[in-house]
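Lecture 7 notes: from sequence to structure.
We start with the chain below.
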Amino acid sequence: MKKLLQISTALAVFLQISNGINAAIPTQDDYYKVEPISIDEGVVLEASGIAMLPNGNLAVSSRRGDIYTFSNPLGELSQVKMKLFAAGLHEPLGIHWDNGWLYATQRCEMTRIKDEDGDGRADVFETVNDGWGITGDYHEYAFGTKPDAEGNMWVVLCLTGSFSSQIDYRGWCVRVNKDGRMIPTASGIRSPGGIGLNHLGDAFYSDNQGPWNGSSSLKHLAVGSFQSHPGGFRWFDLPLVKKYMGGAPVVPNTNSRIPKERERVKEYVPPALVLPHGKMGNSTSGFSFDGNGKFGPFKNQLLISDQTFSIVNRGFLEKVNGVYQGAVFPFLKGFGSGNITSYMDPSGILFVGGTDRGWGARGGKRFALDRVKWTGKVPFEIHEMRAKPDGFELTFTHEVDPKTAGDADSYSLKGWTYILQSKYGSPEVDHVTPKVTSATVAADNKSVRLKIDGLVKGHVHHLVSSGIRSMDGLPLLHSNAYYTLNEIPKK
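Predicted structure tokens for the same chain:
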């Protein structure tokens, strides 16, 4: 039956194309244009942070310690000019503008910077906080956010060598408040690739595959939470940690599973979005979001970069039983280098930058800065994927053809999880094949309710919706979705 359906829908699309109804199946370029921004010859701009300044210039930090400004970044690319703004910083990974200052999270401290005489070059550098340590190990990265609603800037600190914690607060998240005071906030960090706030002001960071992390993922940074890697537990003896955090969590058992360890380790917060290794990327990094809907139909969804694959994925989040979870979808490709950081301008233009860092990246360039514009056309995509007690509900950006969308054979599901272990990464394990037993199309043809036999709490559920078509006979631009099912909703 499924094979017959695929043949018939393919034939229908072929006939439509032959009859001139659709000249061609649309591609990403019909909806989003990726445009490279020129970098001056001789400049190595390993983009690591992006922020818009009040004068309309775009500030871009480089992992190598410089910050440049780009004039007219929203206009004609030929008119964009770059200028050195600051130099001599120590690997700044995250910049933002706030109250007259440009803030930079460096490896060794959080700094605020100002161009006091107005000549376009920074001349005032002030330490905001330097309460964490560094040893000189190359992997001790520090990523920071803009202020949250309370004025706190969140910072995640990579482990020493990404395996152990050899100096204060490595493997931790801390907050720097508006008075410059550091507040220990969460433990269990391994190897961050980025950090940010969602539209509700909640903090998330990306962690990469390795010990205690079966695959790269996006994690919710709740105050007092444990994120999976116990390497930094030694700092629970520090007076400041005792003041704000209390005692250390129970050490998770190795060779276990996340749902089981959640029962043992009450502080443990599971990954909100798992980005399956080798499928959705290899090195999850920074993210941004469109807060006003000027970048297309995906308002407030997270646009998550990947360094190795040189792509931007799309993440939909929801809370079930008080826990963040959701689905990730392929979204944008065609970037010049390994994406590390992004910034969404209120005008609806997305800026993305990065570097291959010597690790390599599919983009092919050593470093790059790109911008993405929405053409105004809406792609046919799954808009949201929500968990239900007995399945999922899908919403779409266009009306669906009720015949194909209402056929259970238009969908297929697989599920798996990862070993929670002290060894590096994990294969996909505990495979299941849940069955879509029914697909009910809503009266407005904009959503489908899937009833599924065999959902598993704690598993990633890979949904392929290759059989459905829009009312215009188009296939989904991206038919794959990966839902991290931390909680199954109550009936």
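Points to note: The CA atoms of residues 145 and 196 lie 5 Å apart. The helical segments are 2-18, 239-244, 258-264, 402-405.
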